[in-house]
Amino acid sequence: KLTSLALQPVITPELVQGRVHLKCTYSRPSSKLPLQYMVVWSRLSTPGKKEQIQRDTTLQSSSYVEMNGVNLKLGDTVFCTVTAFTRDTPEQQSLPEESKGFYAGIKFLPESLQIAEDGKEHVLTILSTVPIACPGHDDSCKITLQLSTEDLDSQLLGPPNIALSACQVDLLRAPCSESSCAAAALTVTAVTDFAQDGNRISRIRAEPVGRRDLLWRAYTPKDVKVTVRDLPTGNCYSFTDPHIITFDGWRYDNYKIGTFLLCRSLSRAFEVHVRQWDCGGHRSATACNCGVAAR
After folding, report:
1. Who's near 154: CB < 8 A, 6+ residues apart?
2. What UniProt keywords are attached to this protein's entry (predicted)?
């Protein structure tokens, strides 16, 4: 056998004549012998199991495979394994060297989120690891993703658990660099629901829309799991004739008749007004809430 030649195969994405290909590149050893290379392309079919999709014998220091949406689809993790051998004596082979797995498709960064009901915005980046082809002359080079959220605790039929800053995003083609050929960002916020409903799990789904080509039409990216940590919320009350308890637990009574400002936020446009009418007899001055307005 030839010794280990440190071929170090690497997979990169590339557009060839407007179609998405993966390219396996490896370094040529400084050997005086005339070498040939056998490149075996495979995909992860089930966890831990690879399925061969193409085999090339070449004199070049690279090999291509097309992502045609049939034997190689978006969502696949792809490997290339390279073996070198001398042309005159093909039985003299180097040890096969395998590339790292290349995930072809849409990636979310981070892959899952853990957020709290505190009003903070969390950035979610969506990127495509493969270049985006332009199918027609009139079509711009982009993928439009429709975004939706789903609460996985289906027994709780309450408001949505998370809010997104956009319902759809466009991934516009850019030169491929650091495993991204197109990217977009949006923010995710936990909905403050004033309910003690425990920690809840939601997911964000992205679906390509309006694409005619087979590669994107048949593809749904993996969902993003979002865990929302429940935070205790402040409460305030105005009840019976009216007794009032403020957010910080201070208690007092207000027997007056009229319209009052119950609560106003100093940081956003939010306030609550209450109207109180006389509901007592001749002996006691008592008022009751009869109307409320919230902005």
Report:
1. none
2. Disulfide bond, Signal
Could you give phi then psi for residue 23, rounded to 5 degrees?
Answer: -115, 130
Which of the four CATH numbers 1.10.10.10, 2.60.40.10, 3.30.43.10, 3.40.30.10 does domain 10-104 have? 2.60.40.10
Residues 6+ apart with CB under 8 A from 266: none
| Whether residue 175 has a cis bond before it, omega within 30° of 0 | no
pLDDT digits (tens, 9 = 90+) for 180-199: 999 999 999 998 877 787 88
Residue 194: its pLDDT value, please? Answer: 76
Look up the pTM and report it: 0.78
Contact 167, 112 (CB under 8 A): no
Determine phi and psi for 191, rounding to 5 degrees.
-75, 125
Residue 25's CB: how many other CB atoms inside 10 A? 17
